[in-house]
């Protein structure tokens, strides 16, 4: 049935207990932050939404294990001057019609 739908089954490795937990965590995050909030009408829209979410997760979304960095983005320099925090300007960019938000320092 899966092959008829164009899906391939990927079996988890032997004695790799973290493999399933990593994917389950990603699926949980995807459902909670994206699919529960976005109405999807067809497969094309679903694929576009998932590609956009993947790009968002790897390029912008902060990850705790990477010290609030993203996998494809280097860590920015920390602000050490207390006076700079009061003058900090942040720019927000909406993705997927406002479902996802990206924040960055404004120039």
Strand content: 5-15%
Poorly predicted sequence stretches spanning 5 or more consecutive residues:
none
Distance separating the two termini: 52 Å
Number of domains: 1
| Largest β-sheet summary | 2 strands, antiparallel
Helix run count: 3
Kindly state the number of beta strands: 2
Calculate Rg over CA atoms: 18 Å
Shape: flat
In N-to-C order, the SSE pattern is: HHHEE
Give the helix level as a range of percent: 25-40%
Short précis:
With 107 residues, this protein is of the alpha+beta class.
Write the layout of secondary structure elements.
Blueprint: H1 17-35, H2 43-59, H3 82-86, E1 90-95, E2 100-105
Antiparallel strand pairs: 1-2
Description of the structure:
Helix content is about 40%, strand content about 10%. By secondary structure, it is α+β, with helices and mostly antiparallel strands. The protein has one domain (about 15-105). A two-stranded antiparallel ribbon has the order 1-2. A hairpin with a 4-residue loop joins strand 1 and strand 2 (about 100-105). It has helices spanning about 15-35, 45-60, 80-85; strands at about 90-95, 100-105. It has 3 helices and 2 strands; from the N terminus they run αααββ. The termini are far apart. The model has no long low-confidence stretch (mean pLDDT about 80). The protein is flat, with a radius of gyration of 18 Å.
Summarize this structure as a short list of keywords or feature phrases:
107 residues, alpha+beta, two-stranded antiparallel sheet, 3 helices, flat
């Amino acid at each position: 049935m899966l092959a008829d739908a164009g899906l391939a089954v990927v079996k988890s490795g032997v004695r790799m207990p973290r493999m399933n937990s990593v994917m389950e965590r990603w699926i949980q995050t995807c459902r909670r932050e994206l699919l529960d909030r976005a109405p999807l009408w067809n497969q094309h829209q679903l694929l576009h939404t998932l590609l956009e979410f993947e790009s968002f997760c790897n390029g912008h979304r902060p990850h705790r294990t990477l010290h609030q960095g993203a996998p494809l983005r280097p860590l920015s320099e920390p602000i050490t001057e207390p006076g700079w925090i009061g003058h900090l300007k942040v720019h927000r960019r909406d993705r997927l019609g406002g479902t996802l938000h990206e924040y960055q320092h404004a120039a």
